[in-house]
């Protein structure tokens, strides 16, 4: 093991040599799973094939996260803006939880993983909601990794929704305006039960947050990984965790 200076760019071989510090695994890792369409395009396949392959990556990464002792894994699966995509693509993505959970639920149960969601789930097609609810129900007593799918999720919509429910409580005199602080406001967000992510990973080389957890990522470390999501694997996840472990988090202090 060797220490590196904060600003030093890490070469691949440095990272390979470095051991993962199992005492410094982020509790909460959030991932923007991007690049499914480009993966398919590279292979002259329809975009939906990329989404299918992306689902296989979700399985691999969930297992790895569980093995590593990550406590919360939030995966951005469908944004409030993704409805603008062609109808057949949206329809296919909506069928994925049904397919995914049919084949993967027994393994999730065996691994003690608890399935949860953030996002406007009730606006999804009925069959999608049913599959998600079944997975939540069957894993609700599990105490291991919390696997949180962000489905029909948007950070701005979440804040608007949270502000509305806060306002309703103020109006009902359950709360006074002077009680409102950051914790009170964020307790009205969908992510209320979870700590903020220490680490955000976005695959496919894009460097933006696309309306994901815009409040919660205030002090997260961002890692932009070049792999397209279907090509992302355990090795890449480990690489990201090592890069994270070499970051110095300061939270505005010195
Ligand atoms: C991410 O892959 C999955 C979803 C947004 C549902 P994309 O479908 O955005 O893939 P690219 O960005 O077009 O390659
Ligand atoms: C973000 O990816 C949403 C998900 C991964 C679900 P997009 O592909 O939709 O984001 P933009 O359009 O590139 O910002
Ligand atoms: Mg994309």
Automatic annotation (TrEMBL):
Functional note: Catalyzes the condensation of isopentenyl diphosphate (IPP) with allylic pyrophosphates generating different type of terpenoids.
GO biological process, alphabetically ordered: polyprenol biosynthetic process
PANTHER family the UniProt entry points to: DEHYDRODOLICHYL DIPHOSPHATE SYNTHASE 2, DEHYDRODOLICHYL DIPHOSPHATE SYNTHASE FAMILY MEMBER
EC number(s) from the headed UniProt entry: 2.5.1.-
GO (cellular component) term, any one: cytosol
NCBIfam families, per database record: PRK14830.1 (NF011405), uppS (TIGR00055)
Positions bound to Mg(2+): 34, 221
Pfam families in alphabetical order: Prenyltransf
Textual note on the cofactor: Binds 2 magnesium ions per subunit.
Organism: Staphylococcus argensis
Subunit structure: Homodimer.
Name the record gives this protein: Isoprenyl transferase
């Amino acid at each position: 093991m060797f220490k590196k200076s904060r600003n030093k760019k890490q070469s691949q071989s440095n990272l390979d040599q470095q051991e993962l510090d199992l005492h410094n695994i982020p509790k909460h890792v959030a991932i923007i799973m991007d690049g499914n369409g480009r993966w398919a395009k590279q292979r002259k396949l329809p975009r939906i094939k990329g989404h299918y392959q992306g689902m296989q990556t979700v399985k691999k990464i969930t297992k790895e996260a569980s093995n590593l002792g990550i406590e919360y894994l939030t995966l951005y699966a469908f944004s409030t803006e993704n409805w603008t995509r062609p109808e057949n693509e949206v329809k296919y993505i909506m069928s994925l939880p049904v397919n995914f959970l049919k084949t993967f639920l027994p393994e999730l149960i065996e691994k003690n993983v608890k399935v949860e969601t953030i996002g406007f789930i009730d606006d999804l097609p009925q069959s999608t909601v049913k599959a998600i609810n079944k997975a939540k129900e069957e894993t609700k007593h599990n105490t291991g990794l919390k696997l949180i799918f962000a489905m029909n999720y948007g950070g701005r919509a979440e804040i608007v929704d949270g502000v509305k429910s806060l306002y309703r409580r103020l109006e009902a005199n359950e709360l006074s305006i002077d009680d409102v602080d950051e914790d009170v406001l964020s307790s009205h967000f969908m992510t209320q039960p979870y700590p903020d992510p220490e680490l955000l990973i976005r695959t496919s080389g894009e460097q933006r947050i696309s309306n994901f957890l815009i409040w919660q990522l205030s002090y997260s470390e961002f890692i932009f990984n070049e792999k397209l999501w279907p090509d992302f694997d355990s090795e890449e996840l480990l690489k990201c965790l090592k890069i994270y472990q070499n970051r110095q988090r300061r939270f505005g202090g010195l």
